[in-house]
Sequence to fold (370 residues):
Amino acid sequence: MNIPLVDLKAAHEEVADEVRAGFERVLAATAFIGGDEVRLFEREYADFGGVAHCVGVANGTDALELALRAGGVGAGDEVVLPANTFIATAGAVARTGARPVLVDCLPDNFLMDHQAAADAVGPATRAVVPVHLYGQCAAVAELAAGLPERVRVVEDAAQSQGATRDGRSPGSGGIAATSFYPGKNLGAYGDAGAVLTDNEELAARVRATANHGGVAKYRHDVPGFNSRLDGLQAVVLRAKLARLADGNAARRAAAARYDALLADLAAAGRVVLPSTAAGNVHVWHLYVVRIAGADRDDVVGKLNAEGIGAGVHYPAPVHLTPAYRHLGHRRGDFPNAEEAADRILSLPLYPQITADQQQRVVDALADALL
Fold:
């Protein structure tokens, strides 16, 4: 019995009939760009996240770039972000022309060290990007309280659909970018993303920039580019959004089962279980443990050989990738991020995973650690 890291087939089977009917609506109306499905999804997802505005775009990387640009980030600026994030976070910053400034993460939950971020702010800093990692939110309120007024917080919420911290959703009172890559808690059938904000002016800037610089055909008020959510992807997202709250609850239940099943390995010091920061409602995009006393890559190989879809998110922090070697960092500059990259392991987790499947994952992990 193979157990995938993410079961996209099971997710599709739950919405197949609705998606088929929705595709027929889009095809009949030839509403391939924009249209009712996009408009309805934007309203529904804004309501789900408790924000005033949702602007659907082509992918999560574009969403973050657009959110940064809407906040005035551009060439010559600096943007602070964590070293332990998917490369797209740094890529979105670089695409604005700004320079990424990296900081370390916290050692227990791997969220960005908000004090280190505040300390890294300099005269050229225009924004700070906290990454809501693995399904829980970084300390946005604490971070914002320590920043000068000129520095904007732009949240990378690509892994946190439905997560809150102290009752606050990503983008509430500020601006956030998210991704609907197929493996996300809310995943499309291809690339898709969105920008979330309560600020009408920021939302309008994002919408215009993502539509070649204007909101009307052949009207171009600002320099822009093409990054639009299409009607077919909106159909998929609407169908899945109706199930997202229940899916997140199922993920929380599965994470709790892992905690119980892994308790003996944790007590023996073989693994370190994931930690949830105070005030967070976690949506468990990923269930990430730390391997102790064994070679992590060897463990991954053994699990994969047994049909267990284990993975690593992420095997190299940004400063140790060739793409960002020019930032001038070396190993040892961000020890918590480096330790995480060497030790973390993501176990299969999705709403449809069964207790028997989780037991098999844990049994295989125990064998791999011998």
